[in-house]
Amino acid sequence: MNEAPQSPYLARFESFEVNLRSGELSKNGERIRLPEQSFQVLALLLERPGEVVTRQEIQQRLWPNDTVVEFEISINAVIRRLRTALGDSAEQPRYVETLARRGYRFKAPVVWTEPLPREAQATGPRVSPPIDLPAPLLIGKKVSHYRVLEILGGGGMGVVYKAEDLTLGRPVAMKFLPEELGEDAKARERFAREARSVSSLSHPNVCPIYELAEHQGQPFIVMELLQGKTLREHLAKGAFCLTDARGLDIAVQIASGLQAAHEKGIIHRDIKPANIFITEKNVAKILDFGVARVLETGEAGELAAAASREGTSSQPAAGNLTREGLKPGTAGYMSPEQIRGEPLDAGTDIFSFGAVLYEMATGERAFTGETERFQQEAALTENPRPVRELAPAISPKLEAVITRCLEKARDERYRSASELHQALVEVESRESAPRHEEHRSEATRPWVFSLLVAIALALGISGSVLYWRSHRAIKLTVDRTDKTNLEVTGRKAAEPGDARAMTKLGVMYENGRGVPRNDAQAASWYRKAANAGDARGMSSLGFLYMNGRGVPRNDAQAVSWSRKAADAGDARGMSNLGVLYMNGQGVPRDYARAVNWYRKAADAGYAPAMTNLGDMYASGRGVPRDDVQAASWYRKAAAWYRQAAEAGDAHAMTNLGDMYANGRGVPRDDAQAASWYRKAAAWYRQAAEAGDAHAMTNLGDMYGNGRGVPRDDAQAANWYRKAAEAGFAGARESLKRRGQ
Predict the structure, then answer these.
(1) Distance between CA atoms of residues 625 and 559, nearest Å
(2) Which domains does the chain have, with CATH numbers?
(3) 74 exposed, middle or buried (CB, 10 Å; 0-12, 13-18, 19+)?
(4) What is the DSSP secondary structure assignment for residue 569, as one 8-state letter?
(5) Per-residue model confidence as pLDDT tens digits over 656-692
(6) Are the C-beta atoms of residues 240 and 170 closer than 8 Å to each other?
(7) Separation of first and last alpha carbons in the chain
(8) Cα–Cα dist 464/602, whole Å
(9) SS3 assignment, position 690
(10) Are 199 and 251 in contact (CB under 8 A)?
(11) Which residues pair with 276 in a beta bridge?
(12) Helix, strand, coil shares of the chain as percentages rounded to 5?
């Protein structure tokens, strides 16, 4: 049997020699330093001299993994470094030729010499020489308390590895400054700036930074390891189009992340589909703040103010940390002022995001051209084709949002990411109504209707139970022997700075659990928790501001804290916003937005939002009137209230009684209503006799309306008076209504 031919590993062209086994490039016997990724591309080109190597093939060679932490490194930068090492020119190439929109080709003749050892030979014939590249030096090594596992990719400011945190036992991503920039003081400063800027952001739509450190003089940052794909990859497959609800939700998330960055005085300057990551749970994460700029203190204040009040754009100074001679950003997504090298503000991110929205809507890039120069010229002088010309299904309102983002003059764009975020939320809420109308028409078939109701009820109950288990109902009374222990335990946990403990202590005071009810104390602990970043603390503080409990009523504060909580995914914050928009508190009255927020909170299992959403469908406010939808949400709410009521929550008992009394979500049943009212009244009496002013007021309501107890106006007035004397403002209003 004949042996397979030996394969060469030395390639020579003109005065250069490439050794694939050692990973070395030399000229006339002198070694030339070449970054690893550029060496890999050179090896790929030498494997097929005279043939076209596509950019997709290069991407697969450099970044073969599906897990991506950063945006795909610019292949142009890799080729540029290769040409620099070879002394080559892009305009008059001697070795590496660029083929527009296709890839690259190696022009010079290549001679392969030297055999590989027999044990490394191939088992069959080869058409071309094998590429046996050296593995990255860090793979398998321990760096600090991390073990490096594999290379994932890179950005213009770093190479990214997958690693394991040996202390916490979790997978992470480690980003190292490229070796060739390790001695560049400005590059190191940019790298540290990225870490500081992103670490100051705590937002679900921004990839978080865990640590900044050094290894043998090489700086690195540790980030969350994300599972999923970039928006660029999804768009290539036609996913997350803006005509789809999922695509619009992703757009809202991205805008929310940008708003958070701008409120911190940070502009990204390179927003594009490759820098937006979509996790497996469809959560958008903004990546690669490698060119992000943190404005000077005064400018940051102006930008943050604009983000919150939707004021005029700030004009930061021209000084920045960008590498000399290199504009940050990507052609086709850069704003006109960015292309011209002018001072940048939040408007540049809004323009770039507009280009992303355009691509999500139409499947095409807004500004195209065979070269970067033509793409930049298009962004400066041309308007993209109208969105609805390419995508007729896009609504006029959404088209108007995209068009405004892409205005050439920054003053004509949205004044802040906050304003843009609100515009997208409004579009999302408006466009949800037709989909629900379509669902209603489909439900006219009896058997389909029955099946849908059964599924919806099952999902609603299971989701509600999960939410209830994580937000256990609070009994209004506890054994007196436990009161001191509860408060002391909660305070000991809260005082060292545990945000969750602060929130729990606030809940104890708000509901009189283990301590006398005290809304002022509740507000104090909620504020501490909110300032420490706890979303439940934020939403609870927003609720108190909204109702003037423990703090003077302040609608602006209610909106602010509720929005922060909602952005962090807190269902109570979402429900608060629904109430605020429904009542026009601190925001213009907008039933459509109220419905949108109620739906998000209800989908998260928050029962009060389910009830409110049922009310909106029943009354036709913000959505077309739909008794089927109303009944569905009432049914889900009733299931949740039953779980909470059976756990001893007197408020839930009252609400469940209301559901039975009015036939909402359950068949009307006065006997069941009376039963739950009686149970609620018994709990309220225990709490009232223990000094809970809010329970006194509720017990007065029960007597005044004859719910659970015989109607007795004298008893109602008595309990209202006790509550008023205890300082409960709601009781005073009840007394006024009764002329007492």
Answers:
(1) 27
(2) 8-120 (1.10.10.10), 142-224 (3.30.200.20), 235-435 (1.10.510.10)
(3) middle
(4) T
(5) 667 777 777 777 777 777 777 777 777 767 767 766 6
(6) no
(7) 110
(8) 9
(9) coil
(10) no
(11) 286
(12) 50, 10, 35
d(CA 420, CA 428): 12
Q: Is 16 exposed, middle or buried (0-12, 13-18, 19+ CB in 10 A)?
A: buried
| Tokens matching residue 703 | 């007597």
Show the tokens assigned to 338: 């960015």
pLDDT in tens, 625-642: 877 777 777 777 777 667
278 pairs with which residues across the strands? 229, 284
And the tokens for 686? Answer: 């225990």
- How far from 411 is each of 30, 421, 528, CA to CA, in Å? 56, 17, 38
Q: Which amino acid is at 649?
A: D
Q: Which one is predicted more confidently, 279 or 202?
A: 279
DSSP result, 267-335: E-S--SGGGEEEETT--EEE---TT-EEPPHHHHHHHHHHHHH--PPP---S---SPTT---S-TTT--
Would the pLDDT of 41 be above 60?
Answer: yes
> Number of helices and strands (H, E) in the chain?
28, 19
Distance CA 292, CA 191 (A): 10
For residue 206, the 8-state DSSP code is B
User: Can you state the angle between helices 713-725 and 729-737, rounded to 10 degrees?
Assistant: 150
Residue identified by tokens 């922060």 is 564
Give the residue carrying structure tokens 């030729």. Answer: 97
